[in-house]
Sequence to fold (229 residues):
Amino acid sequence: EAGVTQFPSHSVIEKGQTVTLRCDPISGHDNLYWYRRVMGKEIKFLLHFVKESKQDESGMPNNRFLAERTGGTYSTLKVQPAELEDSGVYFCASSQGEYQETQYFGPGTRLLVL
Amino acid sequence: QQQVKQSPQSLIVQKGGISIINCAYENTAFDYFPWYQQFPGKGPALLIAIRPDVSEKKEGRFTISFNKSAKQFSLHIMDSQPGDSATYFCAATSLLNFGNEKLTFGTGTRLTIIP
Fold:
């Protein structure tokens, strides 16, 4: 069974540009989470999808971040326009059900904004 | 405001020794405490988890000790091996949050096991 995949693995962009990150969860997993780790700090929650619906987006830093989950399958996270403080590793995780289900993480996308 | 505090930031242990990583939390609504292990270039992977109704959980060489009154929990790795060298994250969540089990993580501990 394929794990959670993320694309791209690395992205280097200039301040003011747009970047779109993609996450493909494990097939059949209804829950999809986005997290971010800024250098040396904790991994922070960004938002949670249940199927195609946003369940909780309380961790989204500001309106420059837009997340979508098309048809309840893959998800994209767009940053527009990117700022220096957006640099970090963006992780996606998925889980199957509603209760105490293991979250499986992807390898992350390393974003560097110059 | 960091809700889960983790220490130490880095740890070097000799092969065969015991590695101990500590975490403390503030939110009393947390009721599920997983530990994640991350190798370079990979995402975090669940290692072991505990609910607060027990004080200890052991899986092989890995043990979580939990102190509910002190709001602290720790990971012990017995007979540490070079293959255990990784970054370890403690985390916490509330399972009663209507299906939204978002994780609150500590800052991570980089563990190095030396031969």
User: Anything to note?
Assistant: The mean pLDDT of chain A is 94.
